[in-house]
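pls ignore typos typing on phone
guanosine-5'-monophosphate + seq
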Amino acid sequence: MYNKDNIFAKIITKEIPCDLIFEDEKVIFFHDIRPQAKIHILGIPKAEVINLSDFVQTCGQDEVYYFFQKIYEVLRKFNLQKTGYRLITNEGVNSNQEVPHFHVHILGGEKLGSLN
Ligand code: 5GP
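k done
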């Protein structure tokens, strides 16, 4: 069940400020408050969905496609499609997801540590 009190819901409603990158009626992108890389962006669809599974099950394909198009636009804004980046989403207990509103992390701006 979606919890309307989560921090990202409050960022969407402007109760909490953020370092905004891009926003429209469907999505919002802003800088992570505790960056794990030189560039650490959070990308969020405004639909009340908890994680990726919830997003693809609840929202139609147009909305899912739209979100990924906007991710690509933000990548281009920071030239990350040229320099490289990492796209992450956390879901469920094993991932330690902290904020229960679906979001992606976009990490880049420097050489990232290897995953293996
Ligand atoms: P998660 O573990 O849920 O995938 O990641 C949540 C992310 O949200 C973390 O990287 C954390 O630093 C970030 N975060 C938590 N609270 C805030 C906030 O109030 N503002 C911003 N900009 N980022 C936040």
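The longest strand covers residues 39-45. Residues 7, 16, 18, 30, 32-34, 42, 90, 96-99 surround guanosine-5'-monophosphate (CB under 6 Å). more later
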